[in-house]
Design goal:
By secondary structure, this protein is of the alpha/beta class. The chain contains 23 helices and 16 strands. The strands form six sheets. A four-stranded mixed beta sheet has the order 1-2-3-4. The chain has a three-stranded antiparallel beta sheet with strand order 5-6-9. The protein is elongated, with a radius of gyration of 33 Å.
Length: about 550
């Protein structure tokens, strides 16, 4: 019996009553302004949120926002063998901690928002089967009953034949031309099968498409009869990708460059289904310099802890810093834009896909730290206090208790030198705060007075004794500094640094040396924010106690 595709479709999908036309009505074109782009980020719940994945997600979000479009989050969970129990939660929580929100899509474990769902592939099986049934009707899909052993034998035969292309195609596609009776008999025997695409590609023809990052690309047509539905009825990535991006009305598919080789398959499937082919942009890998050989390599889940965005959460890198730094990698003109727009949201950046590099960007933790210092330096004290408290509560509970015991005092501590025209840029992550300000908390402060090389013990003791007699905790910065100047000359120092540089042999030192001795006595640090503010917040009793202890040690 000649193969009747309509009859075969009903045999394979008796329960499917919808048509593609029904799906088109259910998921109409989006009501968006002309030129608006619809993008998506579609991770699989197979592990933690990767920094490279977040990089790609940012590109999707920025592309949509810059065009007045929308970007959604889709979970591709068709590979149940690789899926982990908390995979979806890890992705959602990662984005929440990064302060990233998609316009629609999956919002939590089992929760979604938007008119084009479900946004989880395992909940969309009915859609895939509807499209698959239509392909069978058109003669563009067929059941394949080949076993694993038969497929292995076919591959061996291809190798013997010296075939330039390997896979299920042409004369090697054993089930491609089965009759209706043969198919029916196999189904009646409950033989497992997959549904394959009937490719009409020619290995001698090429497709041409414009990648929005890489430009014009030519590749051979797809000739492989790709699997559309696995034996359990679950779609493959390739088939689900085509169905989902069409019915969710995706205009621009922006994804990792590893999928570039799949474009001929996807274009063939889009056309076979009668769907409009979206624009493609393939994002280069996030790279790093290998510590062993100095060569560039892909950031590895196995080798590099910074591959997981959770690494940055634990370290206390602000979410703004992570986004800000990645944007410097995404578009080379971001830093110029930031200088011109210092207070604007990073998501207001006029992103352009065509300005992305087609080579892998280099992820540098040192550069990230520099960017983060800039980001933190312009935050107000309330924001910094809130971020530190939030981080410490989760990752440093002991410090959290100490830091939040007196919120107002802690706010004042982190605000030292913060409101200056040029604020200090000392802190790159919240995990550094404890050590950076340890001298402000008696629970962490360890006295360690190291005598400056140009100051004798007697001179240091004399400086500290003289200063403790004139110290007044109510002094402002100017009064405080003037008192330092006043004690200089009686001790053989000059209040004028320029004078000292002109005639260093005439003095024991200058006012800066006086300040250094006091700073070391009070904080055990050579470099700190404003010393006057530090001593005021420590309180007169504690400040003088530390000075007295230092005098005794000399």
């Amino acid at each position: 019996m000649e193969l009747d595709n309509n009859l075969l479709a009903e045999l394979l999908f008796p329960d499917v009553k919808d048509s593609i036309e029904d799906l088109e009505k259910r998921y109409p074109e989006r009501a968006l302004p002309e030129g608006a782009r619809v993008t998506r980020f579609a991770p699989s719940p197979t592990g933690y949120l990767h920094i490279g994945a977040f990089y790609t997600a940012l590109v999707n979000l920025l592309t949509a926002k810059a065009s007045g479009g929308t970007s959604y989050l889709r979970i591709e969970d068709t590979d149940k063998k690789r899926e982990i129990d908390d995979g979806v939660s890890a992705i959602i929580n990662g984005f929440k901690k990064l302060g990233v929100e998609f316009s629609e899509g999956v919002t939590g474990f089992g929760t979604e928002s938007g008119d084009y769902g479900p946004y989880t592939q395992s909940k969309r099986v009915g859609i895939y089967h509807t499209v698959a049934k239509e392909l069978v009707k058109k003669g563009l899909a067929y059941p394949c009953f080949c076993t694993a052993e038969e497929l292995s034998a076919l591959r061996e035969q291809e190798e013997k034949d010296g075939a330039l292309i390997t896979g299920y195609f042409g004369k090697y596609a054993k089930c491609r031309n089965l009759s209706f009776e043969e198919i029916k008999e196999k189904l009646e025997r409950n033989e497992p099968y997959v549904l394959r695409f009937r490719s009409f590609g020619d290995e001698n023809r090429r497709i041409v498409f414009d990648d929005m990052i890489r430009g014009k690309i030519e590749m051979p047509e797809n000739v492989i009869d790709e699997v559309l539905l696995k034996s359990d009825g679950i779609p493959t990535y390739h088939f689900a990708h085509v169905c989902d991006d069409h019915f969710m009305r995706t205009t621009h598919v922006i994804r990792a460059e590893e999928w570039l080789s799949s474009v001929p398959k996807h274009i063939a499937l889009f056309k076979a289904c009668g769907f409009k082919v979206p624009k493609y942009a393939h994002v280069s890998q996030v790279m790093k310099l290998d510590e062993d050989d100095g060569n560039k390599r892909k950031i590895s889940k196995r080798k590099d802890p910074e591959a997981a965005v959770s690494y940055f959460f634990e370290a206390g890198v602000p979410k703004e810093s992570i986004t800000e730094y990645l944007l410097t990698l995404i578009n080379s003109n971001f830093e110029d834009w930031r200088r011109a727009n210092p207070k604007a949201s990073a998501f207001d950046f006029p992103f352009n896909l065509k300005k992305m590099s087609s080579s892998g960007c280099l992820f540098d933790l040192v550069k990230l730290a520099d960017v983060s210092k800039n980001v933190i330096s312009v935050m107000d004290a309330d924001t910094v206090y809130s971020y530190i408290s939030e981080w410490a509560k989760e990752y440093a509970p002991e410090f959290y208790e100490i830091f939040t015991k007196n919120p107002e005092r802690s706010r004042e501590i982190v605000n030292i030198d913060r409101e200056n025209p040029k604020p200090r840029k000392d802190i790159a992550k919240w995990s550094e705060v404890k050590d950076y300000f340890s001298y402000m908390f008696n629970e962490y402060y360890t006295p360690a007075f190291e005598l400056p090389e140009n100051i004798s013990k007697d001179d240091a003791a004399a400086i500290l004794k003289k200063y403790r007699d004139v110290y007044d905790a109510s002094d402002g910065k100017d009064e405080w500094f003037n008192k330092l100047k006043d004690i200089c000359e009686p001790l053989g120092f000059t209040p004028n640094v320029k004078e000292y540089k002109k005639s260093p042999d005439s003095f024991k030192g200058h006012v800066g040396d006086i300040s250094t001795v006091i700073r070391l006595a009070v904080t055990s640090r050579r470099n700190t924010p404003d010393l006057c503010s530090i001593m005021r917040l420590l309180g007169k009793e504690e400040a003088l106690r530390r000075i007295d202890d230092t005098i005794k040690s000399l």
